[in-house]
Specification:
With 939 residues, this protein is mainly beta. It has 2 domains: 616 residues, TonB-dependent receptor, beta-barrel domain (Maltoporin, Chain A, Beta Barrel), CATH 2.40.170; 111 residues, no CATH class. The chain is 11% helix and 44% strand. The strands form 9 sheets. It has a 22-stranded antiparallel barrel. The N terminus is likely disordered.
Length: 939
């Protein structure tokens, strides 16, 4: 290893300012840290690159002392991964197409989204989850066995010049243990200190030995977690606003003369509310039935084998994992045959009406049916099982003065989602409202000839027979595969006066395939009017594959005794969207031994995800900002706000790669061997982001009649669906001509605020947006040797200066910094102590205040919050600081017990007046004080 000055060693330690505890053997760990810095961010071996790029490293001891049982738990407090959008755990799980698969999690650097963070294991890729988050594929980090990890290296700067696609915001590299000797058994149990049970149990084993002339390391891990529900905490058990369709109907009568409404007598009194028409309605508290984190069970096992034969080394690493988790969503809203929910009609002969004296007393001769809105009683439950497999085998050797490495990789992720309860067939349900459901499941029976009824009133009683017939169990199956080969070469090219010029060269080829296939009853089809057979279960269908080839070169040149230059370039060719070349330049200057100045510039790219390229038809909703050009036409009363109509998305084989340019400027100053201060300015300019553009479609429809459709948009076209009432009243036909603004104005004169838009607009995924973010990271580390042990004080701070986002060409620029979920200041302080046998730490984790999302809510919610609750539209989510602690003791050289306590002071998270069910789970945690006790025994 070259040029390992005292400053280099100090910088290595300073870059490890992560929220984890130190244990024993600190001197040996310092040497390991220097080695780690040589790994991620460069393919060149044996060169000191710590000055050219900031790197966060989490060691095996840090992992053990973190209290983490999953990769998400390990990363959730790292500053570069906090705030914004992207990093998620299972708090977003559910039954909709926008929900993340139960039990899965993803990491996102700098808030740019999980698909912009490249995930590597031992410097090589891993197959993405077959179930996308929306349309963005991501690597399920919970599928990576945590006990097999030697360290985690986080490089938060553009790295496509080294690693290729998806390294827009940076790289997270999980380095597996190898050449392990001995055996170790770890068992842990964790839970909150609340009265509810959120227990987590983890047992893992690792064993390493020399065998057959090589080293074999095997590992196994088992993890189980109980569910954590909104109802388990005071801050989350009640939804702020119950203006939702209640489980007990809000009832009105269909009358030629007048109508009036009231809440079903079974509706709990606290959920009854009065609307602007003086009708009593029944609300619903969704927090009473949904989960923050679903239960989860996971197991993994694998091995790593290395064997030297002469100057050649053969290596193989392999692991398999299975996770199973059950997500629970609120009960489905009862829906008509056309999927509308506002006018559910049932015959006055329905047994629920005949048994309800209050309903019967209000019936008149001119009333033929009752109108209502309601939810089913049982929550929706889906189970997701994910099987992951990864195999890498290769060989390394030397030729002349160069080291070479060749390897083949196969990685696979398969997921199987199965509805367990709460999903119902809409056709059978609507038949049962009129007593027309047959015992064999057909829908043409008569009430007086054995037809079955569904009673939606008075608690939905006596429906067991009908429910058994109308309930269905749709499925969704996905598979993602990655097959790759690579050849690498690294060594010294020639000598300069200040040292040798080192280089790395490589070629790669890989094939990726993905499929996501729902059962027929969960598909949106034109012949069904895009109406899914079942109620409350969203899905997407996609299938795609691609081949890729790449070649790269990287050079490290000591320009002088104090200046080092890193140059890299990579060419990637994809058989679907074409080719791209990405360079990188890094410069390091050491004017004095105690100071390193560093700078880097790079371009990066993200290939369109296979789901984005291959989506056949995906049911979802799309948000559009109501700009002045079309607000009065399309948005009605929501002018100035947002609307979110139902849409269908189509994949686009002509998508281009997203592009990014990143800059990093900083320095590291070490006034002594025990103290280091670093500052890094970072900037990302991310262009051509992929999404749908409803705003542009609105504007296009003003002059282009080819995107206007009365009723359904044909399956092979894109455009807007216009309401049939609007078309019929205005005498229009599909694909109508004329001045749309004038037509709508005429319609408004007699129809008032009645909608003009229908449902199921079809939009093509496009390169529509841009985002630019910049900020500053600061770290400080100081180590002290005392008579009672070694103390380490560390601090890190991230300032988000700006985050500008243009979702579409016409949406305008949004400043996200300081807005909801984008706190501008994140920081932590840690004091760690390591003695002869005891060790411990205490730390503070800080998240600054930021704007609440009240302004983005619809008008009804805004009025409730501002008028009833007297909360300002400009209300800010308060800052939050939590205290974490870790204590441990080595009872012998073989046996250690440690205790981790998260949120030691049991501080509640800040309350959020928005759509996030009272808590922003991206930045905060409602679990409260929780602990983990770990026992480790080494053989």
């Amino acid at each position: 290893m070259r040029k390992l000055t005292p400053l280099a060693l100090a910088i290595a330690g300073s870059l490890l300012t992560s929220p984890f505890s130190y244990a024993q053997q600190e001197t040996a760990k310092e040497e390991q840290k220097v080695e780690r810095i040589e790994v991620t961010g460069s393919r060149i071996k044996g060169v000191d690159l710590e000055g050219t790029q900031p790197l966060v490293v989490i060691s095996a001891e840090d992992i053990r002392n973190s209290g983490a049982s999953t990769i998400y738990d390990l990363l959730k407090d790292v500053g570069q991964l906090r705030g914004g959008s992207g990093t998620f755990d299972t708090t977003e799980s559910g039954t909709g197409s926008n929900d993340t698969p139960a039990g899965q999690a993803a990491a996102s650097l700098r808030g740019l989204g999980p698909s912009s963070t490249l995930t590597l294991i031992n410097g090589r890729r891993i197959a993405a989850s077959s179930f996308a988050a929306g349309t963005e594929n991501f690597v399920d980090i919970n599928s990576i066995p945590i006990n097999a990890i030697e360290r985690v290296e986080i490089l938060a700067t553009g790295a496509s010049a080294i690693y290729g696609a998806d390294a827009v915001a940076g790289v997270i590299n999980y380095v597996l243990k190898k050449d392990y000797s001995g055996a170790e058994l770890n068992a842990s149990y964790g839970n909150s200190t609340a009265s509810s049970n959120e227990g987590k149990t983890n047992v893992n084993f690792i064993y390493g030995t020399d065998i057959a002339g090589g080293n074999l390391t095997v590992f196994a891990d088992y993890f189980e977690r109980k569910a954590f529900a909104y109802a388990d905490r005071d801050i989350t058990k009640n939804a702020l606003n119950v203006f939702y369709t209640g489980q007990y109907p809000s009832v009105s009568f269909r009358s030629a003369e007048d109508g009036f409404g009231f809440a079903d007598p079974a509706c709990p009194a606290e959920l009854v509310w009065r609307d602007s028409f003086d009708d009593d309605l029944c609300g619903y508290n969704p927090n009473s039935q949904i989960q923050i984190r679903p239960e989860m069970e996971a197991a993994s096992a694998g091995f790593i084998f290395n064997k030297e034969i002469g100057n050649t080394n053969f290596f193989t690493d392999f692991f398999i994992s299975r996770s199973k988790s059950t997500a629970q969503s609120s009960p489905a809203i009862m829906a008509n045959l056309d999927d509308s929910t506002s006018r559910m009609f049932t015959s006055i002969d329905n047994p629920g009406i005949q048994a309800n004296s209050q309903l019967l007393s209000l019936l008149r001769d001119d009333i033929s049916s009752v109108r209502f809105r309601a939810r089913f009683i049982d929550p929706r439950k889906v189970e997701n099982t994910t099987d992951a497999l990864r195999l890498v085998t290769g060989v390394t050797g030397t030729v002349a003065d160069f080291e070479w490495e060749a390897a083949a990789l196969y990685s696979r992720s398969e997921s199987d989602q199965q509805a367990l309860s709460g999903i119902y067939n809409r056709y059978k349900f609507n038949a049962a409202l009129f007593g027309e459901l047959c015992a064999d499941g057909s829908t043409d029976c008569a009430p007086d000839a054995g037809g079955l009824w569904y009673n939606p009133f008075s608690g939905q009683l006596d429906n067991a027979q009908a429910l058994a017939i109308i309930e269905e169990f749709p499925t969704r199956k996905g598979k993602s595969e990655l097959l790759g080969v690579d050849l690498r070469l690294t060594g010294d090219l020639f000598d300069l006066p200040s040292g040798p010029v080192a280089a790395a060269f490589g070629i790669e080829a890989r094939q990726e395939k993905i499929s996501d296939t729902p059962s027929d009853n969960a598909k949106a089809r034109f012949d069904r009017g895009y109406i899914v057979d079942v109620i409350g279960f969203g899905s997407s269908q996609s299938s795609a594959k691609r081949n890729q080839f790449a070649a790269y070169a990287e050079f490290f040149a000591p320009v002088s005794d104090t200046i080092d230059l890193q140059l890299a370039g990579r060419f990637d060719h994809f058989d679907d969207f074409g080719s791209t070349f990405n360079p990188k330049v890094g410069l390091t200057w050491r004017p004095i031994n105690e100071l390193v100045l560093r700078a880097s510039w790079a371009t990066s790219f993200r290939a369109p995800s296979l789901t984005q390229a291959g989506t056949e038809l995906r049911t979802t909703s799309t948000t559009a900002r109501c700009l002045s050009e079309y607000a009065a036409i399309f948005c009605g009363n929501n002018a100035g706000g947002e609307i979110t109509p139902n849409t269908l998305e189509l994949g686009n084989a002509n998508l281009k790669a997203e592009e990014s340019e990143s800059v990093n400027l900083g320095f590291a100053w070490s006034p002594s061997d025990t103290a280091t201060f670093t500052v890094d300015y970072w900037q990302f300019d991310h262009k051509k982001t992929i999404g749908t553009d409803l705003e542009s479609m609105f504007l296009r429809s003003l002059t282009d009649n080819s995107v206007r459709f009365c009723g359904l948009v044909p399956a092979d076209q894109v455009g807007l669906s216009f309401d049939n009432w609007f078309c019929d009243d205005m005498g229009l036909e599909s694909g109508f001509n004329g001045d749309l603004a004038a037509l709508v104005a005429d319609y408004r004169e007699f129809a008032g605020s009645d909608p003009i838009l229908g449902r199921d607009h079809i939009l093509l995924l496009e390169n529509t947006g841009n985002q630019k973010t910049r900020g500053v990271d600061l770290t400080y580390t100081h180590r002290f040797n005392t008579d009672f042990g070694r103390l380490t004080f560390s601090a890190d701070f991230t300032r988000l200066i700006s985050f500008e986002k243009e979702r579409t060409l016409f949406s305008g620029t949004e400043q996200l910094a300081d807005s909801f979920r984008y706190p501008q200041n994140l920081g932590s302080l840690k004091l760690r102590w390591s003695g002869d046998r005891a060790f411990g730490s205490v730390g503070l984790s800080y998240t600054s205040d930021y704007q609440d999302e009240i302004r983005l809510l619809d008008q009804i919610d805004q009025d409730f919050i501002t008028e009833v609750l007297a909360v300002s539209l400009d209300r800010r989510v308060p800052s939050w600081t939590k205290v974490n602690a870790n204590f441990g003791y080595d009872f012998s050289d073989n046996f250690t017990i440690s205790v981790n306590i998260d949120n030691l002071l049991d501080k509640d998270p800040p309350f959020v007046f928005g759509r996030s069910k009272n808590v922003d789970f991206i930045n905060h945690d409602a679990l409260g004080r929780n602990y983990r006790v770990l026992a480790s025994y080494r053989f």
